[in-house]
Amino acid sequence: MLYLNADHIREIGIHWEELTDVISNATTALHQEDYAQPIKPYLRYGDPKNRIIAMPAYVGGQSPLAGIKWIASFPGNIYQNKLRAHSVTILNEHDSGIPLCVINTATISGIRTAAVSGVILKKYLANRKDDQQFTVGIIGFGPIGRMHLSMVTAILGDRIDRVLLYDINGVDLTTVDPAVKDKVAVANSWQECYSTADIFITCTVSAAPYVDLPPVKSSLQLNVSLRDYKVEMVRHMDVVVVDDWEEVCRQNTDIENMHKVMGLEKTDTLSIADVVCNDALKGQKEGVVMFNPMGMAIYDIAVGGHYYQQALHRNVGVVVPD
């Protein structure tokens, strides 16, 4: 069995075009119902903000694989100089169940999260002019926020006009890629970050929603942290996309609250499979698009499988004896 940690993942590298292809291929398997993914259970004890989540899945297609991600999210860690999230992913051979690889790092989870956002971003961009410039706003600049900046930098390239960052705990600009640093500025408030953003990304650990202003016309709202928008904001969203309705409409997410208070139904939304496999955003040039991803285990297994294959090819990692 192969063991990979954060250093091994960094050695292999993060290549966003490859990773968005991995997510698109997994979405095709989802669309073709060549997958298995039970609703993930949340283990809670003590402080109700904390949770450890089990995410088992099988994803078919050209490189079928099974496995599970076990991820702990303790938001208060950030105030103790600890990472908020810790995870271990185990990959199993699909037709025998034999464990193939253990990936011991939350980095893989962050990569998956940003790669899924990247797939939606690319579909959004397909409806925009090739020379259009974009202002990007990111609220929350921890590991997930930094991962999203890396992703949008790679996908947008010279189409980035500027990037506004805001974090309630401050922004460390030394973590910003020098290649885009001249386009990056720190906003004084989330409102400043939000009010001019063509592409707005929430990467916070917010326990309660606060976004209550109309979004920029024709913008993309990547609601990654899922607990930032007040329920009334659904009125400003022309298209609401989810990864999986049953997963995201629970656990006090914005989608669940919009469902309970504003009457948002599954039939009012598109799934990521609709967007990727049926091109459901085609022609959506004027409306505001909001994406709400709870996080699907099939994507974790697919991304983990990608790094496992890369590790074998490059002779990276540690072989653990039975």
Automatic annotation (TrEMBL):
InterPro entries referenced in this protein's UniProt entry, alphabetically: NAD(P)-bd_dom_sf, ODC_Mu_crystall, ODC_N
Superkingdom to which the source organism belongs: Bacteria
Name of the protein: 2,3-diaminopropionate biosynthesis protein SbnB
